[in-house]
Amino acid sequence: MDAIICSPHRRGRLPGLLPGRNVFGAFRQRGGQPRVTSIMHVITGLGMGGAENTLLQTAVGLEQRGHAQRVFSLAGPGVVSELLEQAGVSVINLGVRSMITAPAALSALINSIRRDSPAIVQGWMYHGNVAATLASMLARPGKPRRLIWNLRASNMDSIRYGRIMRWNARLSRCAHTIVVNSQAGASFHRNIGFSEKRMRVIANGIDTMRFRPDGRAREVFRFEHGMASDARIVLWIARVDPMKDHASFLAAMARLPKLQGILVGAGTETLALPPNVRALGFCRDLAKIYAAADIIVSSSAFGEGFPNVIVEGMSAGLVPVGTDVGDLRAIVGTDGEVVPPRDVDALTQAIARVAAHDADSLRALGARARQRVVANFGLSAMVDAYEHLYTQGALSGIAKKPNNELDLEAA
Q1: How far out from the chain centre does Cα 406 lie?
Q2: Architecture of 37-205+379-392 per CATH?
Q3: What confidence score (pLDDT) does residue 215 get?
Q4: What separation in angstroms does the CA of 22 have from each of 17, 117, 118?
Q5: 260: number of Cβ within 10 Å
Q6: Which fold is adopted by the domain 215-376?
Q7: pLDDT at 33 (0 to 100)
Q8: What is the DSSP secondary structure assignment for residue 87, as one 8-state letter?
């Protein structure tokens, strides 16, 4: 690979675009207590998704604990930017639409680092990692800072994502720590040239109080959508994307006409659906939709590291059926069904096996799945792990497991 100069003290010459105000310093104290550290996040975009939701939960949790947060969205505003701002986290939307507008966005990042001197510059996802790295390299020396990356995927399609992954691999030695949310993601990125010694696994955390069984919400949703109280409802929440493989899910549901399927996610309303499946498109209030269902499915063909939708569904008391992508097998354990990706027959049979349980057995299976999530993937454990990473400053190898990382060998 080409040599990369990684010094964070390299002096840049791009002009700054943001007004000269130290945002971190302005909020450095609350109630007379000094804030522990200041963190600047750089993410590709702030639409609803797994990485964006994890950033939301982490930033809000750390803000509430007294750590100053600021989030830069390269692509511009989205649903998550509104939620961050409502929680008191500062958001800057850079509006990058093409390479033509990228230099101005980079200049804004550099200017913010120079002015605000964050202790941590954290990239999220491939484009966010590159932008955070370049900005940190080009900002002039000041208060010592650390560069942290965040990788969210595993076994990504090299045809679609090869160029940006190669750039990430080359730049990975610049990061002090590379956070991955799954063992599968760590293995995948290590095998394509990412720096292994800098990797640390922090599993996603789920708000188990938000995603929980709710009999009243179940009744209301089913009534509003004309679905019987005793119907077996199968749920799949994902934007339309080749990695999500909606086609396999729809083919399986077409073979199970006695079951009812619900699709949620941007673009799902444009899909050709079998008679027993309805699509709701993008929805914000997912908790009530989870509460209405019985089975949560992930049919992803590749790319998933830590499938949030499966864990959220399990937290809500649904029985999981998913493809063996990323860390799903370790997450589900013996509390659900795991099948090979792109195998419609196996997916159909797995959904049918779960749906064949009577109502009491299905509830018991769902309760066991929820217990697994509460024990292993609580939100506070994830925030604890990030807080420790930000405040300790020690490099950690992948073998050192934070509290909320599921041990694959023991699962």
Answers
A1: 16
A2: 3-Layer(aba) Sandwich (3.40)
A3: 96
A4: 14, 8, 10
A5: 22
A6: Rossmann fold (3.40.50)
A7: 45
A8: T
